[in-house]
Amino acid sequence: MSSTSSPSPSLLSDNNNSNNNNRNNDNYDVIDFNSMDLEWKHTENTNSDNVRAVQMASECRLILSGGVDTTAILDAASTLNIIFDVAITCVIGDTSPDELYAKYAAYKHSTHIKKHIIVQMTHDTLIDIYLPKTIQTLEVWDGMTIRNSLVIAAAFEEASKQNLTDVLVGDGADELFGGYTFTWGKPKMCPIEWKNKRDTMCKQWTFATSALAKSYGLSAHGPYMDQELMVDWALNETHRIDCIRDDTPLIQLLLGQPYAHHTTGKVLLREAFTTGSSWRRKDPIEVGSGATIIGKDIYYNNPNGTTPKHLCITDEEFEIAQQELKEKENIIIPSKEYLTNIRLYQKIFGGFIHSTKTRYPKNDIQGCIGCCFEIGNATFCKLCGSYPAQHNSNITPYISK
């Protein structure tokens, strides 16, 4: 994940007279990208007749950093002659695909980023330092939410250390422009059906970013969530044909590696701002940062003796705890990560207590099928990750992982 200072007068400058191509205040060694024969603008995927993409680039004036969405903001910022004081990228372990993409983006936009900081840490450190505060702030134990939020929290802490007061985040682009695989739909599906589903999701969206930012004394700004400039425009003017391209695009998994044909979303955004990341695969924050392994039981099994003892959970311990929580509390625990999260949740809040949600008895249809906390009309429980969370659903429930 990348984060930058927001476009406030104290953090950004409209003056770009200095040349920072030899920027020497990054916290990592210089990479000779010129020798790597990389494609900055991968043009094979671009439809030159896409008028919407041109309008988006010239009128919406987005400013943000990181991944497909955030490098688009860097590209837009460069045309506006905006200079960012700091760009922050979080790298967990040694399998992060984000790292090289982020460094390449900072290299290409070196005149518009004063300093690029790589926050690098182990998975153990990520859990030990950021898990308690993240659970306390968000009041959830859902694994998918927590994994992504831990990385965001690490970036926000670094922003706070850099004495920043505002950060830009990429929330909203995937929802608006079909970034997630489950939003692609089918090639021949009814365009109205796709748009209705997209519009409904965007009208109901919530993000953890603001609460996390506030916990670090920051204000988070999401340009893709700007109601007038972005949300209203996207919902009124864009359709599946603008956002999703089936089978034909050439998509890249790792910088410098070959491209392969694959269906993808966010085509409008990819075409409007063609950068080194424009045609990379959409990866969740946990995948891009390298944090994914903490969601796997193998991490807590400690097969190589590398996981700290206090984070290890044996199969026997897990099975006993899983059964007890189901029988006594009617709570579903699908993995060792969830057990780690829920134990910490209980410790922080003194049990199964929530500041705004009521907990109902077992089988009460007002409660989530996976945790018994009130669910309302929602199909997904943000607290425990159950889907569908309703008791009367015809779909077999599962917990997001």
Automatic annotation (TrEMBL):
Keywords for the protein's UniProt record, in alphabetical order: ATP-binding, Nucleotide-binding
Q: Name one GO molecular function term.
A: ATP binding
Gene Ontology CC terms: cytosol
**Pfam families for this protein:** Asn_synthase (PF00733)
Superkingdom of source: Eukaryota
The processes (GO biological process) annotated in the record are: asparagine biosynthetic process
- Provide the leader sequence positions: none
Q: Which InterPro entries match?
A: Asn_synthase (IPR001962), Asn_Synthetase (IPR050795), Rossmann-like_a/b/a_fold (IPR014729)
Report the CDD domains cross-referenced here: Asn_synthase_B_C (cd01991)
Q: Provide the residue span(s) of the region labelled Disordered.
A: 1-26
Q: Which residues form the Asparagine synthetase domain?
A: 62-182
State the name under which the record lists this protein: Asparagine synthetase domain-containing protein
